[in-house]
Amino acid sequence: MKLFPRPSILLSLFLFHGAMEGKSQQLIGPSYILDTRGVGDKPKDGFLIGSRFIVDTSGPKSEIVLSSSTIRENQPVGTEVGKFSEVGGGSAAYSLVSGTGSEGNANFTLSPDGVLKTAKSFDYERNKEYSIRVLATASGKTPVEKVFTIQVLDVDEVPSKFVLSSNSVEENKPVGTEVGKFSLPGASGAEFSFAQGKGSEGNKYFTLSKDGSLRTAVILVYDQTKKLDVLVRCSHGASKVEGVFSVTVLKNPLKPPPPRDDYEKKYREAVAKLEKLRSFERESNATIVRKNQTIESLDKEISTLREEQERVDASLGSCEEMHRSLVKESQALDGNLKEVDAFVERAESMLKDAQNRLVEKGEEKSVVAEKLAEAERKLLVPHTTDWYFSEQRGWLWASPDHYPLVYSEQIGGWLCYEIGTHGPWLYYEYKSEEWLEW
User: Fold this and answer.
1) Residue 183's beta-bridge partner residues?
2) pLDDT tens digits, 256-298
3) pTM of full prediction above 0.90
4) How many structural domains compose the chain?
């Protein structure tokens, strides 16, 4: 039992006796504190003359700790900071209370079982720490209040805004036309992708590469889609930020093609000329066939004559011994040989002339074939300038200024040629919004 004196001017006499049962009594007179903690719960007798005293029979105080006292900045509301507990175990009820060190209470929530969570998202650059005052109440122990400091940790932050270099595109442009490019000012290595959620309705009309290039995924039409919203996510390291961007489709009216009055006449003339060239080609082919047959016949005759000449030469060789006696016959035979040689020379000349004519006809055929191919190319190329006629598709009009767009009189509207396609060619029809194979 300990006595702690408290001086007092007034002297008094009192008698204290009885069971305190955990209560403190205060009387007038010089003050003393009678500490009976740890003595047990039995009644205590006290006797002091000319003083007053206090008998304190309260239990031991709680000692509480917080598992973590730091929180990263920019975390969402309701993020857990840590959990309170009693040293040595045991359970207690916790709450935030006012008083010295409670300035930061409003920024947190505390559950009765001791879980401390954020009530807002913290910004390290604005405030680096907060002070809270916590009350812990445990059965059989004196309630205790304690002040804790919660520190805000700094993290590398991605800039809150990223930009799009251009947010408009003209209608009727081919698939893959670039609208603009996303970038993150003040940072490098950022990656971009589409996100799903409010504002992502227009995502399906575009493609987006990791480096931020936004391109059309379809042919846009002003009357159908004047403005499209896309939801884009920017990733830089572990940080991510999303933003909604509006892309405006600009009207791009196309001028109607010029009248085709003269082109129908030109088309018929070209068809007639082509037919004439084809007829000439057929006649030339027939002539060449006949000439080839003649040349073959001459070749056979020349071959026969050469064989005859060889036989004559052999006869002459065998008759050399009879030469003197047969001079007259030999002279006659020489005359015949001269005639044969002359005939062979004439035949060879005719053969050479025939071969020259054959070469000339071949050159003529090449020229005709080239003209024919050129005429066919002009009639069959799908993007001939101005009006041209197709037996399957009717009258079509094209121009380098409108490429790859083609106007169809049969359809009564514009088509967009898919560049690079062939056999079949692919055209997009704006009216039906369908692809055609030609």
Assistant:
1) 163
2) 677 766 777 788 888 898 898 889 888 889 889 988 899 988 8
3) no
4) 5
